[in-house]
Structures are given as structure tokens and as C-alpha cells.
Amino acid sequence: MSTAKKEYKRVTVKSLVDMKKRGEKISMLTSYDYSMAKIVDGALVDAILVGDSASNVMAGHETTLPITLDQMIYHATSVVRAAKRALVVVDIPFGSYQGDSKEALRSAIRIMKESGAHAVKVEGGEEIKVSISRILEAGIPVMGHLGLTPQSIYKFGTYTVRAKEEEEAEKLKSDAKLLEELGCFAIVLEKIPAKLAKEVAESVSIPIIGIGAGNHVDGQVLVVHDMLGMTHEFHPRFLRRYLNLYDEMTQAVSQYVQDVKSQYFPSEEESY
Known about the structure:
Blueprint: H1 13-22, E1 26-30, H2 34-42, E2 47-50, H3 54-57, H4 69-82, E3 87-91, H5 101-115, E4 119-121, H6 129-137, E5 142-147, H7 153-156, H8 166-182, E6 186-190, H9 194-203, E7 208-211, E8 219-222, H10 224-227, H11 245-261
Parallel strand pairs: 1-2, 1-8, 2-3, 3-4, 4-5, 5-6, 6-7, 7-8
Helix pairs in contact: 2-4, 4-5, 5-6, 8-9
């Protein structure tokens, strides 16, 4: 299998599937605003997820549940304006697709029409297959999400690793195959054993993108605020911090405060 990297002017859902076939790993990060998305896109990330994690990192909620469809569309619109190359995928938020396939389709259409995004992401397998089918029938690409599904946090009761027991692992494997059969173009696997993630990635032809799912999947996704070290109180095992922006930004702001108080800023050169 060739792992040669291909240059893409614009990454599409087909590009991600082709990357899996060639053995090229897929890079994905979240973004929620224009300025951050412009940096992420410029660094040649393959896909940007406008995640409902905006509920946590942008709005300060404890879970992803409170964020609304209107708020997700606002974030997505900002990201789409910045992304010139990356595929932009948007989470459909909690309560906007579960249990009612017509509501699911309306939500997906609103996201696509109002934000200009390229695909949507939903959490779950068998239990939401009717909603997924209806969205796909409208020509909207769908990314799945299995394993630890944060919108179900109150059912799980904890953010611990999922699918360690055989029954849950078997359901996850069958759900992954179901999502592929329905027509999903990729699946996020969150916080499951690496061995199981490898099995799933090898059992389907669509890309498996991991977060806390080991190195034997087809790509990786992280929350950009976490990997840049802006959320300093969050220390999961799967997270690698590439910067410590929390300390650097705190130092910079403190220096600014000090410079203003001492009248060191602005200087003559910084005045008109």
C-alpha cells in the first residue's frame, strides 16, 4: 500500500476515502471561529470539525448538551469563511436529530444551507439509522461517531473508556459496519481500546478517525484548544499538547496590564 502524500487544493469526502486506500493518515482538528480556523486551515489540516465541544471550550458548559442548532450554525459559518482547503464537518447538536428523522433532515439542511459546510456528524449507530438514511438520501454527506459519544454522557455517567466489555465491543463493530452500509463516508471512534479500534478500521472501507483510539486507525482528531494547551485543567491520556498557550497567554496579558499601569505602553513609537 502506497503512503505517498497527494496534494489537494480542496479536500472532499472522496479525498478522505482515497487517503485511506493509499494508506495516508488523515489529520483533523476542531475550530469554532474564523481566526483559529484560518490558522488551522493554513497549516494544511485535512478536515476541520466544528464540534459541539464548542459548548465546553467556547461557552463554558460542563457538557456538550446545551449548545443549540443556531449556535452551531453561527460557529460553522465563521469556520467556513476561513477554510480554503480543509473539509468542514459540523456536529448536529443534541436534540436536533435523535428520535425524529424529519427533524434530523431539517437540522442537516439548515447547517448545509446557512453555513456552507461540506458534511455533518452525528453520534450513534443502530438507534439513529433512520435519521442517517434520511439525511443521506437528501445528498448530505454524513460522518458517524461511535464509542464514547459525549451527547450520551448522562447515560454513561462518566467519560471513561468505552467498549471494554465484549457485548459493547460487538455492538460497536456491528454499528461501524451498519454506518458504512448506510453510506457514511467516515466514522470518529472516541475513547475505545486501541486493539478494538484497529479491528474496526480493518473491517470497513471508510476512514476511521480516532480520538483516544490508538495509532492503528486511519486518522486522528483533537480539540484544538486542548492540543494548543489553552485548556490547562484537562489532562486525558490521549492528549498531546503541542504548545502551552495557557501560560504564554497569561504571561502576555499580565505583561500588558503591567505596561499599561506603568505607562510603558503605548510608547512614542506607538503613538500618532
